[in-house]
Sequence to fold (534 residues):
Amino acid sequence: MVRIKHRYLLVNILYPDPKTSNVQMKAKPGEDAPYAMQFRQPSSDKMDGKVLFRLIKDNVAELFGDYGSGKIAGSLQVKYFSQATSTAIIRVSRDHYRLVWSALTFTTRLPKPLLQPCVVQVVRVSGTIKKAEEEAIRRARIGILRAQRASKGLTGGVLTTRKPTNGAEAGAQAEADDDIDASMIDGIEDGNEPGDVDEDDGE
Amino acid sequence: MFYDLNIPYVANDAHLPRTLAFLSELGYGVVALNHSIVGKLPAQISCAIPSPLPQKDIPCKLEIRRRVTLTLTESYQNARLAELAKAYDILAVRPTDERTLQLACSSLDCDIISLDLSQRLGYYFKFKMLSEAIKSGKRFEICYSQGLMGDSSARRNLISNATQLIRASRGRGLIISSEAKAAVGCRGPWDAVNLATVWGLSQERGFEAVSKEARSVIVTAQLKRTGYRGVIDVVYGGEKLEVVEELKQGKEGGKQGKEGGKAKQNQAAVNGQKRKAEGDADGGAETAGQPISKREAKRRAKKARMGGEETDQAAQIPATGAVPAKNGEHG
Fold:
């Protein structure tokens, strides 16, 4: 009767430090790989869902103490983790997802065996795992398109430097980038699950 | 559109393009590079942030503004604040104690009041003081990066001070920015909004803090610098365009053209005086700067038609040689 309601956080792990290189990037001689590809590089082999779970638990304990740990312990689960795209879907109970979200924001580096500086960005909060999955697929698709364009050497979007760009190419790439931006502006929280009634809105 | 108005600027920083690219990747559209000044202002005030930036590989989608933060210590020169404001796009002040905060809120002419929230403040925020500042267009800034990257006490102070500030300001007039020295200190805009929500700001106010309020800071600062008495900018100042006639005659020759132009002008003036009702019939075409009224347009069309028919008739006389036929056609 009392159904526990969850929130599913879709999370990207970004690596801003120039020293982290989990993969060898094939770049043009004399140039580095474009920044966007470096930031969204795949995670190292030692990184997986269990390490992420441990990371979240430790951070919540550090920030919110025993209270926070107790609150999320029952419902915290890493539903999906992909090394290749450094993406994860984390399940939390609906009432306490902001605790986990802020714990993720406060992470500065990956835990013990890895110790790489990283930035965790939450890109979607959704009431169903299906929506989170769809968003992950959409973003992966856009990421592939950008990487393909970058490898062909076309300019445009984040990958551009301040050089004069060919209008058509820049326009086409801008469309792909705008795709991501458009979804960010309206808000990243999805509606509730079907049948989910929001009793508490005083967040 | 998301704004991050506090990225510390250090001269000749090799990591700056990386930081800016990271911000652009996270979703920010406008970023302000911040130059801090502590203590005495230099004799010659000029913008320390070169434009365009000397580093290559700056992402082109990111708009960059230049900002200065002046730390208000015991001795500061109020008179030169205006000079400082002119050299940069945004002027921010950092009060160090309650007295300077009171000064900044009431009398100083700045765009942002930025406090170092990772230090333990010895005083409480009062709504009256903050709302006075907000009414005059100043915004309070919450910088999250120091608490993020720093040690436990910095984090505790940040949370405590931010909570107090949010409560005292009732959620309005706040902007959120990183003060990130490196790319690792930056967070996505929605992550920053979530932090503020955990600290007591409602979701809508949090979103405003990263988007609308920040935008209003930039726009207000710009208006202060380019506007005058309610006028934002001048697009067309009402100058008369007399260049048109000279351009027409210009092909024939410089001097000749000018004389010809003058003659036409005189004729136009004469015509205008003779036939005021016509409204500069001939000269009207010359002064092309002013839009033609509908009545004038009709008059001209009619004239052209009549003139056209006259020449038509003149051409047809030798061809046909018959007057009645002409009249018949005229119907």
